[in-house]
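Figure 6 in text form: structure in, sequence out.
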């Protein structure tokens, strides 16, 4: 299990600062989650202003 960031992402960067394992990085027009590093903690989802990170 891992979280995935949807196309709703506005690339604000807030989630990347909250991720405890640094699994979130800036991608092409939105932020992306490294599924292999993600701990499924949900911190990114709780931080995002548009609800873009979602559990798969
Ligand atoms: Fe990082 Fe947790 Fe979000 Fe996974 S669920 S990307 S570990 S903040
Ligand atoms: Fe995108 Fe939400 Fe992360 Fe901001 S907090 S970069 S809108 S996923």
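Output sequence:
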């Amino acid at each position: 299990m891992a979280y995935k960031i949807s196309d709703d992402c506005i690339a604000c960067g807030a989630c990347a600062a909250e991720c405890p394992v640094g699994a979130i990085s800036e991608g092409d027009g939105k932020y992306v989650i490294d599924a292999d590093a993600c701990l499924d903690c949900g911190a990114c989802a709780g931080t995002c202003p548009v609800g873009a990170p979602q559990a798969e």
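Caption detail: The longest strand covers residues 3-5.
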